[in-house]
Amino acid sequence: MASWNLIAGLSLCVVLFLCLGIHAEAESSR
């Protein structure tokens, strides 16, 4: 179960990081 928690946490962090990067790019391109 611990490994599942780790994978879920990592994937969530990656998704958040991607969203932040896309948002930053959209803001800078304006």
UniProtKB/TrEMBL annotation:
It comes from the Eukaryota. This is Uncharacterized protein. The lineage of its organism: Eukaryota, Viridiplantae, Streptophyta, Embryophyta, Tracheophyta.
